[in-house]
């Protein structure tokens, strides 16, 4: 892994913390969910969508045209999470950051629908297309290897507001372990409790939470204490996480995976390709300031730390578009407008769309051999 551990630049806006990125990703998924509902309503197909969710949260005025139909999915939990006070505060911080000069405002008077329209502007400035693609790719891997496959144990590192454990059709035999910072896990548990009163269950899996800083190796003991079985195949997910860890912690995570995996296990890792990306909006560049590691060769990274995971496939942004026949979305490239200006609810944000490009690897690897006992 390449590192900039010694010289981490100061953020322009220190309020954007790494945990806020979990809400940002959740907002991108809410926009995708709005699109999913729009299409289902157009087809008069109510088989997946829930009327109560549509009534409370669907936002017909939201411009979700940049979400390709093939990349839309149904994540009603994303609506519930965005509808909490903490998310409104996060939105305020992002909006403040996207206005020039920065303008602090109280957005709690806005309805959920009005906030979602603003969120759409915020996520567009950070890059929604990458989130849509990576979510879709990992969903399809889970479908193949867990729902239609033999794996019954999933570990989600830096789980944030990833709701696969709830929104995918996982069987009762599946256990999902979700790990993230304690305060993120606390927020998530509260919102999941709240959501369970509104959303009809889709998944039957058991979910176990671990609030932990993944820069320490304690997560291994925590998993084992909660009943994790290293002799059962596991699907390991690292989505939107590794770039925020220092290179030594990334190595530790892969080594921990290697230590706890048996034949039949699989991993998917979202890995940043380069540390200093020469593009992006001001908001996006601030996010880059949180990025501590990258790799120009995920195969080597995995071979070094988790040698029994072989046949590494790398997917790029373009590969995933091709895989889901979703290459023709207009805003995949930067809008060349010289004076970008978006006005939503009288709030003027001034960001351009970022160039959504090939700056991430999505590495998928499987373990075909037994691990040698050490
Ligand atoms: C961009 S979010 C991605 C969340 C989720 N994987 C998703 O795709 O929806 C990054 C997540 O990594 C978590 N994270 C970052 N550094 C961490 C650390 N050292 N320990 C535990 N979690 C961490 C953050 O709290 C946040 O929830």
What does this structure look like?
Helix 1 (20-42) packs across helix 3. The longest helix is centred in the first third of the chain and has 23 residues, at 20-42. This protein folds into 2 domains: 11-128 and 337-349, no CATH class; 129-326 and 358-367, Vaccinia Virus protein VP39 (Rossmann fold, 3-Layer(aba) Sandwich), CATH 3.40.50. 40% of the residues lie in helices and 14% in strands. Residues 4-15 and 331-339 have low confidence and may be disordered. A 7-stranded mixed β-sheet has the order 4-3-2-5-6-11-8, with helices on both faces. Strands 1-7 form a two-stranded antiparallel sheet. A two-stranded antiparallel sheet has the order 9-10. By secondary structure, it is α/β, with parallel strands linked by helices. It binds S-adenosylmethionine (SAM). S-adenosylmethionine (SAM) binds at residues 18-19, 21-22, 25, 158-162, 180-181, 184, 213-215, 239-241, 244-245.
List the helices and strands and how they pair.
Blueprint: E1 2-3, H1 20-42, H2 51-57, H3 76-82, H4 85-98, H5 112-126, H6 128-147, E2 153-157, H7 164-167, E3 175-180, H8 182-196, E4 206-211, H9 219-225, E5 234-238, H10 247-260, E6 266-272, H11 282-288, E7 293-294, H12 298-305, E8 309-315, H13 317-323, E9 342-344, E10 347-349, E11 360-367
Parallel strand pairs: 2-3, 2-5, 3-4, 5-6
Antiparallel strand pairs: 1-7, 6-11, 8-11, 9-10
Helix pairs in contact: 1-3, 1-5, 4-5, 10-12
Residues 18-19, 21-22, 25, 158-162, 180-181, 184, 213-215, 239-241, 244-245 line the site of S-adenosylmethionine.
């Amino acid at each position: 892994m390449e590192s900039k551990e010694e010289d981490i630049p100061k953020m322009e806006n220190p309020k954007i913390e790494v945990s806020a990125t979990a809400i940002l990703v959740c907002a991108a998924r809410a926009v995708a969910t709005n699109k999913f509902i729009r299409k289902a309503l157009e087809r008069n197909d109510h088989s997946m969508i829930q009327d109560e969710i549509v009534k409370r949260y669907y936002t017909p005025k939201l411009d979700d045209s940049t979400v390709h139909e093939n990349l839309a999915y149904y994540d009603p939990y994303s609506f519930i999470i965005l509808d909490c006070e903490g998310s409104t505060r996060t939105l305020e911080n992002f909006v403040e950051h996207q206005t020039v000069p920065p303008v602090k405002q109280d957005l709690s008077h806005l309805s959920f629908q009005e906030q979602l329209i603003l969120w759409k502007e915020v996520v567009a400035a950070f890059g929604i297309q990458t989130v849509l693609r990576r979510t879709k790719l990992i969903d399809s891997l889970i479908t193949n290897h867990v729902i239609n496959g033999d794996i019954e144990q999933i570990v989600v590192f830096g789980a944030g507001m990833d709701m696969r454990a709830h929104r995918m059709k996982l069987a009762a035999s599946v256990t999902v372990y979700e790990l993230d910072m304690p305060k993120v896990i606390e927020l998530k548990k509260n919102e999941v409790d709240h959501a369970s009163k509104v959303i009809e269950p889709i998944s039957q899996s058991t979910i176990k939470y671990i609030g932990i800083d993944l820069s320490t190796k304690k997560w291994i003991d925590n998993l084992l204490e909660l009943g994790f079985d290293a002799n059962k195949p596991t699907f390991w997910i690292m989505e939107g996480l590794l770039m925020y860890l220092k290179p030594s912690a990334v190595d530790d995570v892969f080594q921990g995976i290697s230590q706890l995996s048996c034949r039949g296990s699989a991993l998917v890792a979202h890995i940043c390709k380069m540390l200093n990306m020469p593009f992006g909006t001001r908001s996006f560049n601030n996010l880059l300031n949180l990025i501590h590691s990258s790799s120009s060769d995920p195969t080597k990274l995995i071979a070094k730390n988790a040698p029994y995971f072989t046949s590494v496939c790398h997917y790029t942004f373009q590969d995933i578009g091709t895989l889901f026949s979703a290459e023709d979305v207009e805003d995949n490239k930067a809008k060349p407008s010289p004076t970008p200006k978006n006005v939503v609810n009288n709030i003027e944000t001034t960001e351009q769309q970022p160039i959504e490009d090939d700056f991430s690897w999505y590495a998928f690897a499987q373990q075909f051999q037994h691990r040698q006992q050490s």
